[in-house]
Amino acid sequence: MIPLDGLALAPTDAPDAGDVALIERELVAFNVERSLPYDRRPLCVFLRDGAGRAVGGVTGSTNWGWLYLDCFWLPDALRQGGWGGRVLAAAEAEAVARGCRRARLYTYSFQAQSFYERHGYTVFGTLEDDPPGHRQVWMRKDLSA
User: Fold this and answer.
1) Cα distance between residue 143 and residue 140, in whole Å
2) What is the pTM of this model?
3) How many domains are there within the chain?
4) What are 21-66's pLDDT values in tens digits?
5) Which class for 7: exposed (0-12), middle (13-18), buried (19 or more C-beta within 10 A)?
C-alpha cells in the first residue's frame, strides 16, 4: 500500500533513469497480466560508413506481432538513392523474422508520407494542426502480403 500523505507531483525534463525504469517495469508487468506475452524488443537498422560509423538509419521495436517504427533519418546526400528503401526493407525483414505481421508508424506532413506510401504503407489516422500548420499522419502496413 502506498501512503497517500506526502505525495507530490514532480514534472521534469531530466528524469532519473531508475524512475523511468520503475514506470516501464510496472507497465510491462501490468500488460503481461492482462494480455499476450509482452515480447517488446528494440529493432534498429543503422546505415554505416566504411569506418563503421552510423550515418543514418531507423529505430523502433517489435511487440505483439507489430513493428513499431520510431525515428528514421538519412542525411540529404543519401536520399533519393534507394538507401531509405533498403533501410526500411531491412527493418521489415527483421520484424517478419521475429514473427511480426504488421507495421505502424507516424510521420508528419512535412516529412516522408509519400515515401512510406511508395513502400506500401496506408494512412489510418491524422491529427490536424500537429505541429501547428501541419498534420501528424499515422500509417500501417501488412507485412504478411
Assistant:
1) 9
2) 0.84
3) 1
4) 999 889 888 888 888 777 889 999 999 999 999 999 999 999 999 9
5) exposed
pLDDT greater than 80 at residue 88: yes
- Identity at 131, one-letter amino acid code: P
Residue 79 placed within a domain: yes
In a domain, 84, yes or no: yes
In angstroms, the first-to-last Cα distance of the chain is 49
Query: Are 95 and 43 a contacting pair, CB within 8 Å?
Result: yes
99: cell is 514473427
Decide if 19 is inside a domain: no
Q: Let me know the angle formed at the C-alpha of 30 by 103 and 102, rounded to the nearest 5 degrees.
A: 10
Here the CATH number for the domain that contains residue 98 is: 3.40.630.30
Domain that holds residue 107: 41-142
Kindly state whether residue 21 falls inside one of the protein's structural domains.
no
Number of residues in the chain: 145
CB 78 within 8 A of CB 47: yes
With residue 95 as reference, give the H or E element that holds it: helix 83-97
